[in-house]
Design goal:
Blueprint: E1 9-13, H1 20-29, E2 35-39, H2 47-63, H3 75-88, H4 95-118, E3 162-165, E4 168-171, H5 180-188, H6 192-258, H7 272-350
Parallel strand pairs: 1-2
Antiparallel strand pairs: 3-4
Length: about 350
């Protein structure tokens, strides 16, 4: 199974000003992966501007509670020593330097010949040829012994470490031209890689735990919503049965009260009061039942909205899963086609002519 753990995220910000979009994106990234903030094109600023900008970025990250990867406890002192030792290494020669060196050597030889012919002491003014630079300056090992062996271009570097421009050659592995060696040693030396991997694993476990907790919370919410809906339906049935029983008892009581005693004669004028009371009670009961039905309908509509939102969440998650499966299937098909092509090429290579 392929390990998809992301160990580090190098986030490059623009010089002089940090954008709000960078802050928003870093707020989402720092909980998922170890974050290392790098100022891109820092050579466009002076040392004072760089220091002030670093303090501003550090304060802004602390204000927004954005966690960045801490290399080691004694990092500033060792970093200064690393930069000092790297700066002491002379830069590699360029075409311009070689041309100037050859011109100076030719000028010195001409002056020496002129002094020999004239008999003057002009040989003292001859400029000696400067000593060649150390050929092993670029091949020297990093200040900290890296974990990737003796290949300086294996990690965080291309096979070709130099890029030729019209104005000279830029060496990515030299401290005078690039901060890449310092960043490489910070990340991969003196236990830095181990700390980086441990922090990446911790953040990945936290993300997986949080995802599992969210799924469990959604399941509990769906269960509680279903139980609440069943309880509301049961209460509605009980209220309707109770209202019907109360109406039946009230009608029986009114019917019994409406019957005159045996010793009294029946008079039609005495019937309007019980009938009016019965009509009032019936209207009151119907109004209560209508209000109860309205409240029940509103509760059921709210429950339907919650069920709809939950169903949409599940459908979105299922759609994401299907997309991921489709991408995986496409990648497998590409790998299968590539493997078949390789097998066909190998079979054609080993096929003997008839």
């Amino acid at each position: 199974r392929r390990n998809e753990l992301i160990h580090c995220c190098l986030y490059f910000i623009a010089p002089h000003r940090m954008k709000q979009a960078d802050i928003d994106l870093m707020q989402k990234l720092h909980t998922l992966v170890p974050l290392v903030v790098v100022i891109a094109k820092a050579d466009t600023m002076t040392e004072l501007e760089t220091t002030q900008y670093k303090d501003k970025v550090r304060d802004k990250l602390h204000e927004m509670s954005i966690e960045t990867f801490c290399f080691w406890t004694v990092m500033p002192q060792e970093l200064s020593q690393l930069e000092a030792s790297a700066r002491r290494t002379p830069p590699p020669p360029t075409h311009h330097d070689l041309e100037i060196r050859s011109l100076r050597a030719a000028n010195g030889r001409l002056r020496a010949q002129l002094a020999h012919v004239v008999g003057d002491a002009a040989s003292e003014d001859a400029t000696p040829e400067p000593s060649p630079l150390d050929e092993h300056a670029l091949a020297s090992p990093p200040a900290f012994e890296p974990l990737y062996g003796g290949r300086p271009f294996a990690v965080m570097g291309a096979a070709q470490s130099a890029r030729v421009y019209k104005w000279g050659i830029a060496h990515t592995q030299h401290a005078h031209h690039s901060d890449l060696p310092v960043l490489r040693d910070l990340l991969l030396a003196h236990g830095g890689w181990k700390l980086l991997k441990e922090e990446a694993m911790i953040k990945a476990e936290r993300y997986q735990t949080r995802d599992a907790d969210e799924e469990a919370a959604h399941a509990r919410a769906a269960t509680s919503i279903g139980a609440a809906a069943r309880s509301a339906a049961s209460r509605r049935r009980q209220w309707r049965a109770k209202a019907a029983a109360d109406a039946t008892r009230e009608a029986q009581r009114l019917a019994a009260a409406r019957l005159p005693p045996a010793r009294r004669c029946w008079r039609p004028r005495s019937l309007w009061k019980p009938l009016a009371l019965l009509a009032w009670l019936l209207s009151l009961t119907l109004a209560g039942l209508s209000h109860l039905e309205l409240m029940t309908t509103r509760a059921f509509a709210a429950q339907l909205q919650l069920d709809k939102a939950t169903l949409l969440d599940h459908l979105s998650a299922e759609h994401d899963c299907w997309d991921k499966l489709a991408r995986t299937e496409a990648q497998l098909q590409l790998e299968t086609a590539e493997l078949l092509n390789r097998l066909g090429a190998e079979e054609s290579c080993f096929r003997f002519p008839r």
